[in-house]
Amino acid sequence: MATQEQVTGTWILISIYMALILYFVIRGALKTKSISDYAIGSLRFSPTTVGLSLAAAMTSAATFVINPGFIANFGVGAFISYGIVFPAAAILSLIVLTKNFRKYGETVKALTLAQWIGKRYNSGAYALFMAFLSLLLITFIVLIIVAITKVLSKSLNISEMYILSGIVIFVFGYMMFGGANSMVYTNTIQALIMFLVAFILLGSGYEHFSNGITGFLDKLSRIDPQLARTTYPSSPLFRDLYEIVFAQFIVGIAVVVQPHIITKSLLLKKDSEVNRFLVVATVVEIIFFLVVITGFYARIEFPDLIIGGASIKNDGIIPAYVIAVFSNGKLAVIVGLIVVLGLISAGMSTLEGLIQAVSTTITSDIVKPIFGRKIKAEKTYITINKFSIGVLAVIAFFMSWDQLVNPRLSVALLAQNGVYAYFSAAFVPVLFGIFFKNVKIKAPFIASVTAIIIHFGIYYFLPYLVEGFGWNFGWFTKYLTGTIRNPAIASSTAIIISSFVGLGIHWYEKQKMKK
C-alpha cells in the first residue's frame, strides 16, 4: 500500500494536473466551431509540438504500464519483442508512410482514416465499412483506462471502482469539448512529463548492471532460467523467434495505420515541417519504448511476483514496483510522485487521441453519410459528437470493469485482439492508396474483408477445430492451443495473406485492362 505521504502527494499532483488539462480544454473549445476543427484543429502548431504529441499518443500506457509486466513475466524474449522489434518496425513504417499519406490527406481534406480511404477509392460504402471497423479501437481505450485505474488505485489506496468512475467521467467529459485544438497542447505536456519519467524509470534499476549485462542476466537466470533466454518456451506469447520477431515485426509495420497515429501529420500546415516532426517523434518514441526495461527491474524486486502474500497480476506489476521503490525518504517519494504522474500521462495522451478519433469517425463517417440529408447545421454535428463520446464512455466503463474483476493474463490481449484486427484490415487500402496508381476498389476491399476473416478465424475458429475436433495444422498448431493465444499471430497472418490477395487482384485487374 502507498504511504500517507504518497497518497497526499498524489492528490496534490493530480489536482494540479487536472486544472492544467481543463485550462487547455477550455482554451481549445473556444476555437472549435465545427467538426473539422475538432478533428484536425483550427490553430497552427509547431512540428515539434505535433511530434511530441504523436510520440505520446503512439506509446501510451501499454508501453509504460502493461508491456513491462510481460517483460517481468517472460524476460528477454518479451523485451526483444516489445522493446526492439516492434518499435523498429513501427518507426520505420511511420517514416515511410507519413509523407505520402499527408500529401493525399491534404488534397482530399480528409478528417479521419475511414474518410481518407473512402475518398481515395471514391467509395462511400468503403468509408462506412472502415468506420464501423474502427469501433474495434474501443478495446484499446479499455486497456488504457484499466492501466490508469491500476496506477491511481495503488497510489491513492482507493477502490478500483471509484477510480474507474472518476477517470471515465473526467476524461470523456473534457474530450466532449476540447478536440485537436486542446489535445496537441495536452499531449505535449504529457509527452514532456513522460520524457522525464522515462529516464527516471530507466535509471531506477541501474545498480543491477554493476557487473555488466552478463551479471544482470545472471540475476534473472537465478530467478528463472527462461527469463534470460531469447525465447520462453512455456509462455503463451513468446515461445519462438517466429512469434517474437517475425509476427511482431509485421504487426509493428501495420500499427501505424491507426487513425490517432497516421492522421497526426494532417495537423501540420506546411510540407516543409514534416521532417522536423518525424525527427522529434522518432527520437522521443525510441526513449519511450525502452521503458519496458523496467519490467526486468520489477522482476528482480519481486522475484516470485508476490507482495503481501498475494500474487501480482501482469497489469499491476509496474504500479506495485513504483510504490515499493519510491517510498523510502522524502526525495524518493517526490520522485515517485513524478513517476506516477508520468504513468498517468502515458495513458491520457493516447486515450485522448483514441476518443477523438473514434468519436469523429462515428460523427463524420457513420452518422453524416446515413443521416446527413436531415442534418443541416454544423453545430448539430458537434452535439452528435458529444453524444457519441458519452455512449463510448458508458461502453468503456463496463468493459473496463469486467477486465478489472475478471482478468485473464492481461487486458492487453483484449486490446490487441481488437486493435490488431482493425489495422490488419486498414493496412492494404492505406498501402495501396499511397504507393499504387489506378487501383480498382475491388483489390483493397477484398483484402480488408480477407484480413478480418483470417484474423478472427485464426483467433477463434481454428482453435475450436484443433481442440474440439483434433485438427492438425502442422507447426502452426501450437499457436492455436490453450486458453491464452497471441493476437500477433492472428494479425500478422491476416496482414500477409490479405496483402497477397490484394496484390493478386490488383495484378489481375491490370492484366484485364491491357487486353
Question: Mind explaining what this structure looks like?
Answer:
This protein is mainly alpha-helical. Helices cover 75% and strands 1% of the residues. It has one domain (4-30, 47-406): Sodium/glucose cotransporter, CATH 1.20.1730.10. A two-stranded antiparallel ribbon has the order 1-2. Strand 1 (306-307) and strand 2 form a beta hairpin. Helix 3 (47-108) packs across helix 13 (294-301). The mean pLDDT is 89.
Helical fraction equals: over 70%
What number is the mean pLDDT?
A: 89
**What is the end-to-end distance?**
74 Å
Largest sheet strand order? 1-2
Count the strands? 2
Strand content: under 5%
Keyword list:
mainly alpha; Sodium/glucose cotransporter; two-stranded antiparallel sheet; 19 helices; 2 strands
Topology:
Layout: H1 4-29, H2 35-40, H3 47-108, H4 113-120, H5 124-133, H6 138-156, H7 160-175, H8 180-203, H9 212-223, H10 241-254, H11 259-262, H12 274-289, H13 294-301, E1 306-307, E2 310-311, H14 317-325, H15 330-371, H16 378-405, H17 411-435, H18 442-469, H19 487-514
Antiparallel strand pairs: 1-2
Helix pairs in contact: 1-8, 1-15, 3-6, 3-8, 3-10, 3-12, 3-13, 3-15, 3-17, 4-5, 5-15, 6-7, 6-14, 6-15, 6-16, 6-17, 7-16, 8-15, 10-19, 13-14, 14-15, 15-16, 17-18, 17-19, 18-19
Question: What would a concise description of this structure say?
Answer:
With 515 residues, this protein is mainly α. The protein has 19 helices and 2 strands.
